[in-house]
Amino acid sequence: MKKIGTILFFVFIVVAALGFMEQPEKRTVPRKKAFIVPNGWPQPVYDFSKNPLTEEGIELGRQLFYEGQLSRDGNISCGTCHQQFGAFNNFDHPLSHGIDNSLTTRNAPGLFNLAWQKAFMWDGGINHLDLQPLAPITAHNEMGETIENIIQKLRKSKTYPRLFKEAFGDPTINTQRLGKALSQFLLTMVSSNSKYDRVLRGTDSFNLPEKLGYTIFKSKCSSCHTEPLFTDFSYRNTGMPLEPYLQDIGRMTITQNPADSLKFKVPSLRNVMATFPYGHDGRFFSLNNIFEHYRSNMQVMANTDTLLKNKLPLSNYEIGQLKAFLQTLTDSVFLRDPRFAAPGTSPSATRPLDLHN
Hints:
mainly alpha, Cytochrome Bc1 Complex, Chain D, domain 2, two-stranded antiparallel ribbon, 34% helix
């Protein structure tokens, strides 16, 4: 009887052990993060119901944004071209630099307030934020990698399976989750705390040049650079002649409609003092260059925007006041926010923001 009891005891231990081993892996529950729309702003166009923000998803996205392994040689990350002190633009370079010391054909724009954008790239060629990173990742002159290789590298990593599990509940790593994680981080990049914003909230006030510049801005610029985002996200021909070497025809590349020749997305003027050089190919190195283009150097074409058929008359006095107002669109809080800096570093915002303007 004692022998039978001993056997039953060991059988119980084995069954219990097997039962423990067969228990499904416990799923982690990511912590939800609310997306706050600034007062007076329109509702975002991004569908958060299909990719709810979580603390873990945002952190995973931040890690991926600064991850060199997303490129073929392990040296180029999203953050290489999108630098925080330049409002996440390609600071100080007309054209972005890619893998193997190659040059791209465009200037990397600033990254902020992306939840309000329906399409991305200078020509609007990508219609969803979750898909946007795939273009630079796979471009031969940017990050030069394949999605298949990236997924394999992340799966073999010591840390990413854990980070994906924390963000999505299990360690599955695939293209969809890669895009969603990057989106979660990018969506948190909201720039809404400039002096302009404080004036609208009643906690600050414009000085006289800023106030005069704001009046001129509303009269001559706001049709395209619509408040509060300071862009209407349209595509317009602003009289910039075709650059012979680049041969970039803009929106027409996507639509194949000749009427869209040399049309590019209207950029936001938020943080404009930090996002030089300007234009899709960085041809304007200062605001003075831009103002001179609009008042004197435009090449009016058949499909130049109707608002600019007579160019844009601006006196030196008006330009001075406009520059004073545009200074108020600099969000120094955003440029120095540690939440957006590379993991383990402090954000660098020490360069003069208006050095070339």
